[in-house]
Amino acid sequence: MDFLNQAMRTAAQRLSTPPSFENSALVTDDAVLAAQVSSIFRRSGRYFSVIEGPRMGRQDASSEATRRRNALAKSGADHIFLGALADDACAAMRSGGGRLEVVQNVEAVLQALRGKLSRPRKQLHWGATNLGIGLHLARSQGMELICDLSESPPTQLVERGQHLLVACEMGASISEVIASNVAFAFNASFATFPELSEDERDQWIEDIYLLGECADRGTGLVSMAARASAHLGALTVDRYATILWITSGFPWGIATPRQPSTHLRRYPDFGRIVVEGIWASEPKKRGARAALLVDPGKVSGSEMQTINRALLKNGTLTHALRGEGATVATVDSLVNLLPNDIIVLSSHAGDAPGERVTYAYEDFDGKPRRLVVDEAIGFGFDHLSKKVHVTSYHRFQSLDGVRWADREGKKALPVGTAMLAWEAKTREKDARRYIVHSEKIERVNGSMGVLMNDGTWFFVSHGFSPWAAPLLINNSCWSWHELSERAMYAGARGYMGSLVPIMGAEAQGISEGVFQQFLGLPLPIALWAAQRTTYRDDRQPYVLVGLPCIKIPPNPEDPVPFIERAIVDGIHYWSQLSKRTQNADIKETANRNCKFLSDHLKNFQHNLVRRPIPSNGKPIAFSDDA
Fold first, then answer.
1. Taken in order 111, 114, 120, 122, is the CA torsion positive or negative?
2. Considering only CA atoms, which of 346, 37, 343 is closest in space to residue 180?
3. How confident is the model over 301-312, as a mean pLDDT?
4. Quick one: CA torsion of 33, 42, 268, 157, rounded to 10 degrees?
5. Domain boundary among 419, 447, 475
6. Contact, 85 vs 93, CB < 8 A?
7. Residue 574 lies in domain
8. Is 187 among the domain residues?
9. How far is it, in rounded angstroms, from Cα 29 to Cα 76?
């Protein structure tokens, strides 16, 4: 830590304590309402939760609402406001019970909080654009934001603290408001920068992927960093100790290799992900109770022994899954069903080959539709169900002749009915009768499978165990692409992965830095320091996603009762679901998961090894890796 400058040490201290939640929260897609309501909450170090409304056009609309209600419960908000949502979205949010109040303006919020919240005496008049900047300026000066001007000032930076800059890619007003709230809660400076077009963003990410096929990846990353820096233009970041990039998908941190950085995606569910990230970081005991270490034996010189030893010294219970035990079905179950605070994967990863398939079918309105989809399939045998475990990834290419990336073109189509009908028909036993054409393709862009001992695992999850929000560290080639978005959407508090293929010595160096030399520091700083130590230059192949306060803290408590309690709770949940449901597939899954957890509990209690470590003030370490 000696080479960290004073600014970074100060930032590490300030970021070690996450913000607390305000007692109120707002669910809305109305960016102006979100900005104006946020401005009346002025307590320093408090995060006012704004969560986007549930997307009711999706087939899993009920889950959309459930995920938001669960996040609101984690925030501990006493007053939850539904702002300008459609009737079906309001009904979905209210279906879980509790008091949720519909509001249309700031006055309704103030009336509901009368006696608990005072209105700012001064006002900042602003327009309906550039809302994140206006909001941060108003709150920093203790003013209420009033959006009554025809246009907003073109300001792109509000200075507050130099320990952290929150830099938000423009183009989504509600995301700018949420990002501004994050900056205020962390007492940080806030800036915006021009949006990268969707086509250009996708091409830049593709260019990074293709670097993996080049001999000189380092030079390619430097060139890509220069391209990204040019896009940022006048945004000067040198004086800030750390940076949180709010992005539409591109890893902007590569443009600023001399400063620690992390990222959050502005879509999907940006607001929910922030709430869950703060919740996971608040009590220190929640960050490193249990770790799952997965090493299928596909890479030489694995860094897992280094990580395992470091975590044991940290007081973390480790479960190491090695070689033949690291199967697709087992890993998928352990990742999704157990309360892991840390998950580490060490293997090969990359986009898989597959098929480009054309489906012709009628939607629920009887209209003929034509959908072109790229499909990648992964297989692995599940010893519990005695069936082949199948995971799949789909990337849509076109609908009724309109490119999937053409947002304007798709607006003229009834997309929702087409997709709902396709999902229903592909679940039919003779679903292949709807296929009118298929062809093999070498790579399904974005599929990003991870190689397990018995096959390729496509990580797809709608949610981790409710007992934990894991930090997922993936030492697999190219692993940052796509997997970070899937992990964060499922409820991870952070994701660390590489932009390009890495060598075993590099993974070893990064692991020693993150898990030993810089353990306990906020992860953006720990990862940055580990990369500087490993490469001794500006190369930064690893990228971090998550709030700037995430870290791996010492575990102060015996994790065994926690693990046992969580497993028993999971058994009860799946058992009850099996009894309630009338759906045969859901019942089969519930029974299978219940059996898996029951068996795992027995194995856990039988194989548990308590390993005392030298007397150095650390707690007793645990491992169930015999």
1. positive
2. 37
3. 89
4. 90
5. 447
6. yes
7. 560-623
8. yes
9. 21
